[in-house]
Amino acid sequence: MKMKSKLTILLAFLLIAGNAFAELVRVDTPSSSLIIQADKGKKLRHLYYGTRISDADAANLKAAGAASLNAYPDYGVDPSGEPAIAVVHADGNMTLDLVVDAVSSRKEDNADVKVITLRDSHYPFTVDVCYRTSPAHEIIETWTEISHSEKKPVRLNRFASGYLPIRCGNVWISSFYGSWANEAQVEAEPLTHGMKVIKDRDGVRNAASARSEVVFSLDGRPAENSGRVIGAALCYSGNYRLVVDASPDKNYHHFLAGIDETQSSYNLRPKELFTTPVLAISYTDKGLGELSRSFHRWGRDTRILHTDRLRDVLLNSWEGVYFNIKEPEMDQMMADIASMGGELFVMDDGWFGVKYPRDHDRQGLGDWTVDTRKLPGGIPGLLDAARRHGVKFGIWIEPEMVNVGSELYEKHPEYVIKAPNRDLTYGRGKTQMVLDLSNPKVQDIVFTVVDTLLTKYPEIAYIKWDANMPVRNHGSQYLSADNQSHLFIDYHRGLAKTLDRIRDKYPDVIIQACASGGARVNYGILPWFDEFWTSDNTDALQRIYIQWGTSYFYPAIAMASHISAVPNHQTGRTMNLKFRTDVAMSGRLGMEIQPRNMTEDERQQCRRAIEEYKSKIRPIVQHGDLYRLLSPYDRMGAASLMYASPEKDQAVFFWWKTESFCHKQYPRVKMAGLDPDRTYKVSEMNRIDAVPLAFEGKSFSGRYLMDNGLEMPVSHNAPNADEWASRVLLLSAE
Ligand code: GLA
Predict the structure, then answer these.
(1) How much is the mean pLDDT over the chain?
(2) Which SS3 state, helix, strand or coil, does residue 229 take?
(3) 319 lines ligand 1 (CB under 6 A)
């Protein structure tokens, strides 16, 4: 069977090479197939996306009733549907008639890329529709490359990365809405007729509001372990738009994803290549959980840096001291995190500014020089202290931004984003502005911020890269009047160029993508980064919901999750330290607190938690497979998930109470991801109860744990434990 399909592929390649037409193009992952029909001189037709199928079945797709829809809908000759691409030609003609011209394929490292070249039947206008797959992943990456050789620029009004028809039925869509401190809230709803648009137009960041990922559940209400699902993630750092349009006269919902073209039409010069961002899609018939694991594996292997390394346990200074950065406090925080077993200290905002010291959020951005009033020993002094305490050192920057009160803005007012004839418009602190990264001189400035720090102080191990303002006052003082609509796109090209330069020179430094919390959780920005700050909201209870939504597409290794003080600084809620620790340990563990204000008991508890995290569960959480067991969004009073090592010899189970009512009945949670035929010994981590749990040290078969689970006591028998019970169990195969 395998042999036969290899022969067919070979035959198809020979046909392609011989310039005859290849009829069916297969884009396969190990367990899914996307089949498109590419007949020379005809429209490119989407026939199938689903479970991997044989060549024989692929050949009969049309007979079976495949819709045969235009696989990259072009606007003009048939203008009724939602187009993936719409242009105005140099002569004013608004139509496209794209037909298949060629099919080719190439190897890229471990990946296969198939390219279908579409050419307009009249104009010298070309779109390459590209698909990339690799044998190790269940993800298809699709994007387009647009070019022409008309006499003058062609105006691109629509330029989606990809199109996918979704057969109508009991289809549900899951999406992730949010806002500052409430990111990634899961919303699942049936897909009905009409348009559903998910978008973000922040300009700079794009993930605080709706996220650029969706899941289609094709068999009704989304389920973790069953049902056919398609996941889609637009990998782009700027404004995006995901559209689902249910056509009234056909059996299909039409899904389009790409850069949001609103106020972003693009004048494409002759011979210039316009490459749209990657749309990553994945299909499985095993439900949401399997879909997430596919995205996690692909994300870890291809889209997030340094995932082969385990992440350090860190203390970040923000909630501990805010802007009150001072040498003795930095020293004390380093000593404290070291004494609790942490490995890295990160100095947040407030360390810079000479003429305009960064004592608050109203000035200083742009002037990345140490404030020696606060830090007389400068960065060398801090690095000395870090060395002395045996921790690594990291630093916060926000290099895309500037305040009115800054030497940079005094010298270069022309570097900020601003429309002519309009007053300045400010963001944070009512004085912040965005630097215009479409301008190569600004790109140099941003590069130099990092370059200077890392050249002078190569010991800096970690950078927290923040971005706290959207584009306002749409206008570039650099771009020509004709190309003002390029600003949103050129900003992100400038950012990408700058990050490329940084990564070429500094491949090893760990960089966190932060943007007012989780506003840069996106696979379009992550390729230059190691992790993201999941949310400015560090309240453990709300974090369960935020991290749950984030986990649909992003793996725990990238999800920074910190233990913070009570009452929580965002919600005012007080929860016991065990609960806060147990939530933070389900991601990339860190602390966001002034340790000086903790009691000795609390420090001891954290010391134990950090020790257990590092010695027992860090590789399972950071490299393992996620199984979501009980969703907080189901409002059953508790939430639960677990990670299992790829070999299934180790797993860690998390359970948190999310509601606390007297005599409430909480569901018993079945485990998942274990080997049914192995036996696992159970031991509780972060135990605070005086008496161990009944199953402590006992062994159970994977089958029993997955069929029945263990009964979780819903409260703690311990001092200082409030109603917010939680459990972390380590399962070790015997
Ligand atoms: C943003 C970040 C915070 C912190 C502050 C500093 O809000 O999300 O974590 O770094 O900026 O000003």
Answers:
(1) 95
(2) strand
(3) no
Q: Residue 663: pLDDT band by 50, 70, 90 thresholds? A: confident
Residue from 395, 396, 403 whose mutation best tests the ligand 1 pocket (most atoms within 8 A of CB) = 396
Q: What percent of the chain has pLDDT over 70?
A: 97
Dist. CA 76–CA 78, nearest whole Å: 5
**Which is it for strands 139-148 and 125-133: parallel, antiparallel or unpaired?**
antiparallel
What's CA 215's distance to the chain center, in Å? 14
Tokens representing 271 are 């011979």
- What torsion do the CA atoms of 671, 728, 643, 515 make, to the nearest 10 degrees? 130
User: How far is Cα 434 from Cα 469, in angstroms, rounded to an integer?
Assistant: 7
Residue pair 547/555 in contact by the 8 Å Cβ criterion: no
CA 24, 29, 30, 34: dihedral to nearest 10 degrees? Answer: -40
Q: What is the four-CA torsion angle of 404, 407, 412, 416, rounded to 10 degrees?
A: -30
- Ligand 1 atom 2, closest CA: 516
Q: Nearest-5° angle of CA 336, CA 390, CA 388?
A: 90
Determine the Cα–Cα distance for residues 289 and 546; give it in Å rounded to an integer: 17
**Tens of pLDDT along 607-633?**
999 999 999 999 999 999 999 999 999
Q: Whose CA is nearest to atom 4 of ligand 1?
A: 318
Cα 524 from Cα 142, distance rounded (Å): 13
Name the strand (E) or helix (H) holding 165: strand 154-167
Measured in Å, residue 599 CA sits from the centre of ligand 1 at: 26
* CB of 514 sitting under 6 A from ligand 1: yes
466 is an active site residue: yes
In terms of Cβ atoms closer than 10 Å to its own Cβ (0-12, 13-18, 19+), residue 90 is middle
| Ligand 1 atom with minimal separation from the 517 CA | 8
**What's the CA-to-centroid distance between 107 and ligand 1, angstroms?**
42
Ligand 1 touching residue 237 (CB < 6 A): no
Q: What's the whole-model pTM score?
A: 0.96
Q: How far is the CA of 536 from the centre of ligand 1 (A)?
A: 7
Ligand 1 pocket check for 348: Cβ under 6 Å: yes
Q: Is the CB of 538 under 6 A from ligand 1?
A: no
pLDDT of the residue at 455: 98
How many percent of the chain have pLDDT more than 90?
93
- Among 465, 536, 538, 570, residue to substitute to test ligand 1 (most atoms within 8 Å of Cβ): 536
Residue 466 Cβ contacting ligand 1 at under 6 Å: yes
Active site residue 308: no
Q: pLDDT tens digits, residue range 350-386?
A: 999 999 999 999 999 999 999 999 999 999 999 999 9
| Cα–Cα distance, 336 to 349 (Å, whole number) | 20
Query: Quick one: tokens of 702?
Result: 């994977």
- Tokens coding 294: 């596919």
Backbone angles phi, psi at 147, to 5 degrees: -155, 170
Tens digits of per-residue pLDDT, 94-143?
999 999 999 999 999 999 999 999 999 999 999 999 999 999 999 999 99
183 lines ligand 1 (CB under 6 A): no
pLDDT surpasses 90 at 327: yes
Is 318 touching ligand 1 by the criterion CB < 6 Å? Answer: yes
Instruction: Give the residue among 160, 173, 106, 112 at the shortest CA–CA distance from 139.
Output: 112
Pocket test for ligand 1, best of 179, 349, 531, 564 (most atoms within 8 A of CB): 349
Lowest average pLDDT, out of 13-27, 66-80, 461-475, goes to 13-27
Question: What pLDDT score was predicted for residue 721?
Answer: 83
Tell me how far the alpha carbon of residue 519 is from its chain's centroid: 9
Catalytic residue among 120, 128, 466, 490: 466
Centre of ligand 1 to C-alpha 255, Å, is 35
pLDDT, tens digit, 9 for 90 and up, residues 423-437:
999 999 999 999 999
